[in-house]
Amino acid sequence: MSDSTPEKPQYDVHQERYRRRQPPVDVGSRRQVLFDDFFLHMAAPAHWDQLAYGVRFSLGQVEKHGTPILEADAPWESGTAWLCVLKEDGRYRMWYNSSHADRRGLRVSYAESDDGIHFEKPILHRVAVAGSTENNVVFEGGFNGVSPELGTVFIDPVAPDAERYKMVYAEWDGPYVFELYDGSQGTLRGAYSPDGIRWTRYYENFLGRYPDSQNCACWDPTLEQYVVYHRTSNQFADVEAGSLRVKPQHRGRAVGRIESDSFRQWSPSVLVLAADSEDSLNTDVYNSAYSRHPDNVNAHYLFPSFYQHYEGTFHVQVAASRDNRHWGRLCRETFIPLGEPGAFDCFIISVAPGFVPVDHDTWALYYRSGDGPHGGSHPITLDYKPQSRVSRVTFKRDRIIGIEGDQRGGHCSTRPLCFDGERLMINAEPTGPEPEIRIQLLSSETDTPIDGYTFDTCQPITTDGLDSPVIWKNSDRIGTEVPRESVRLHVKIRSMRMYAFQFLGGR
């Protein structure tokens, strides 16, 4: 090459994206959860220390109640199944499936509690069981009802008072299906109530097949749509290439999604969650347990039970979504461990939909349990008759999935944030020896630390705290020199798990 040849400009198309300034995410003073990579920033080549390194997503810890809190102990009951719990005006309200000697199918019953643990079954005189209304049954399916398999009861904030409570449930398409069931003779239906006690069935059928298991519904204020997550199925291993045409195999149970602006006419079903090869071919998804964050309308969770066919066990995992449409599993460990052999929940844990706040700092998830393998599994000889009971777990708010730094220490940074406040609080806990979190504020324009808000001036956070203040220069206040319109967080983390952050206090 001669000296007169002009040099080509140094340009790498793969790095050009880092030169484009991202618009900030407006977090205001709302609590933000770190259950996925939404807030993470891909660092520019000049700032590799801001790239996520030495960190991973991991699950928080739950505390199991340890014993059943509800079972079929009323004289008119012979068993229990799916359940749903709401907390209203300080009182816990439970709807659950009950079975009875006078009817082959299920009914929906009701119970109440002051503490969320000790439930009473009030006599409501709504439905006759064996000729008597001296019971707590509130619904047996309405018109053409055969066996309403409870899904969700939820409060509809946009409905008229007469339809304030809504229910979805799976239902057979006629009594004959108990003898002729072929996997399709049924539907998903809905009902409404002014008080959660007096129920009326909607006339429409929501699906054209029987969606066995607990189906979940909600009103999404962001989408302005009703959303239902229901049982569906998945397929795999199909090939169509030239003359090679092989039909797919049935992959097993999965989770489908439909939505509606009326709660009566529904969109076609879309597959949103299914087991894959990483889960093994022995596994499918039994239910969804949809639950929205109590304080953040754009944070959604599923707590599906992954059914291992050979063993007959249900293992609860976690999936998360920002938009209530697309779901991911960043952690595949079991969230709620099964009980020890012989315990009431040693084979099956199936989470009921919806977080139930216990107090300001504690949430609960209720679940259906089983002390024997699910039917159709590898035959296991038991010296007792398996039973289904209800229990619950509790955990600190937001502590479901978080970003954890390893024992050597790691780091990550956020995309630009627009915030409102004077203080930065984080929810974090130690996970190993020598725990520590330090945070510095970065300029969104230069990607460099803002003077006075650096790692060196940050007081390390080393203890468990739901609202631990980030302190710089012995102050937990963020001065006016820090632009509220766009700033980034840069985190150094070792042997700790960080679940959430929040800016507090007005300007």
How would you describe this structure to a colleague?
- There is one protein chain.
- With 507 residues, the protein is mostly beta strands.
- The chain folds into 2 domains: 21-59 and 402-504, Sandwich (Jelly Rolls), CATH 2.60.120; 63-396, Tachylectin-2, Chain A (5 Propeller), CATH 2.115.10.20.
- 2% of the residues lie in helices and 41% in strands.
- Strands 2, 3, 30, 33, 35 and 37 form a 6-stranded antiparallel β-sheet that branches. Strands 4, 26, 27, 28 and 29 form a 5-stranded antiparallel β-sheet that branches. Strands 5, 6, 7, 8 and 9 form a 5-stranded antiparallel β-sheet that branches.
- The longest helix has 4 residues, at 16-19.
- The protein starts with 15 loop residues before the first helix and ends with a strand.
List the helices and strands and how they pair.
Blueprint: H1 16-19, E1 25-28, E2 32-33, E3 55-59, E4 63-64, E5 79-88, E6 91-100, E7 103-113, E8 119-120, E9 137-139, E10 149-155, E11 165-172, H2 177-180, E12 186-193, E13 200-201, E14 216-220, E15 225-236, E16 239-241, E17 244-246, E18 249-260, E19 270-274, E20 283-285, E21 291-292, E22 300-302, E23 305-308, E24 313-316, E25 319-321, E26 348-351, E27 356-359, E28 362-370, E29 390-396, E30 401-405, E31 410-413, E32 417-419, E33 423-430, E34 436-443, E35 465-469, E36 487-494, E37 496-504
